[in-house]
Amino acid sequence: MNVFYDVRFLQNPYWEKGLRFMTGTDKEVQDFIFKDEESQEFLENLKKSLKFNFDNWGKSEDYVVGIACTGGQHRSVSVVEKLYDYFKDDYQIKKTHRDLGKAERHRTNKLLENPNYVPKVVAFGGGSGLSHFLKGLKQFPLDITAIVTVSDDGGSTGTLRNLFEMPAPGDIRRVMLSMSRKQELFEELFNFRFSKKLNNDLKGHTIGNMVLAALNEMNNKDFVKAVDDLSELLDIQGRVIPVSKDMVRLGCEYTDGTKVYGEKDIPNQYKRIKHLFYQDNFRVNRKAIQAVLEADVVIFAPGSLYTSLIANLLFKEMINAIHQTYAKKVFIGNLMTQTETTGYTLEDHIQVVEEIIGNDAIDMVICNNNFNIDPKILKKYTSDGQELVRSIGDNIKYKHICDDFISISDDQHIRHNARKLGYKIFSYAFELLTSE
């Protein structure tokens, strides 16, 4: 005989700080769920009902009790644990928690079911940091999705954004070019910027931004469709998804209580940031949510910590998706601090992200451990208050891969070795799929 009970009416520990990343096997979770009289009464009545059934029906046939809930990690597990402890001494009981450890089985089954399966990697970011990283990642057999912020309101991007009432095109343009299979053909053209010496409306605009603005108009202001059309033209390897379809406007509150609105002004206040927010309640792009839910690895890519990375995470639906996905979460540390992160260590960067997505939500950290940089190259950074982001090596509390990821560009800028970084992600993704 099979019976099933839905326990979604019980209080959900998922929304309780400190309990989200525990399970129903933990006493703290059980105490939270059964702290009120209603839940205790339910449990006692369930015990009485099952005891009656065991004594009358369980003698002649197997008796299966299913406890159902939303995620199968907290409430249902707690109920099963309570029932097992109550009945184990008097009956021959076997307990199974179907969804605990489900993520690992889910990843492994994908490869067992399809030997040609390609890992799905989702990367959050924007601007030059994400685009440079993707140039290395696309060299490996991965199914790549880039989720890109659209809040930039400076320069050509800001002008077109206001003129056409569209999400910011600049970061999207950079990321699409980095993922294009025709990069050499299009990069110089799409990044071409009309001279600021011109005294007309073309002054300062890039061709790529204007093409995206034109496609947005041609698609009746459907920015996501415009991005898809340009992706097809550029023949990109993977997908680029704007985090929102709306004209989002970023705001910032600093630790001294002052506020500023507009992404372009946020890094220029030379103050410590307390938190970011959107000025209005903007909608997250559902395609971005679906990509996170289907991912095997979610990457918090290098770049501007606040305006490129955190700006992607300021949606409740996105945070929920990050917690619901079976994907492992990987944080890639920046090489240099920026104006708004002066003095930040590697752990400071991680803490900013975990303040948004939850403590201990990151599964892997990839960081640089080469700090032996030519002083002449460093000087151009230190004169602007920037410095190398220091990691603490083997003392870091996270599972980590620390290596020399420094690459000096032709124009003497400090960059990640994108190919080496891409290989680490590729290896990690396949390790997840082949581990038992």
Keywords for this entry:
single chain; 436 residues; elongated; alpha/beta; Rossmann fold
Describe this structure in words.
It is a single chain. With 436 residues, this protein is an alpha/beta fold. It has 2 domains: 2-100, no CATH class; 107-149 and 243-434, Rossmann fold. Helices cover 40% and strands 15% of the residues. The chain is built from 16 helices and 14 strands. A 7-stranded parallel β-sheet has the order 5-4-3-9-10-11-12, with helices on both faces. It has a 3-stranded antiparallel β-sheet with strand order 7-6-8, with no helix packed on it. A two-stranded parallel ribbon has the order 1-2. Strand 13 and strand 14 form a beta hairpin. The longest helix is centred in the N-terminal third of the chain and has 20 residues, at 37-56. It starts with a strand and ends with a helix. The model has no long low-confidence stretch (mean pLDDT 89).
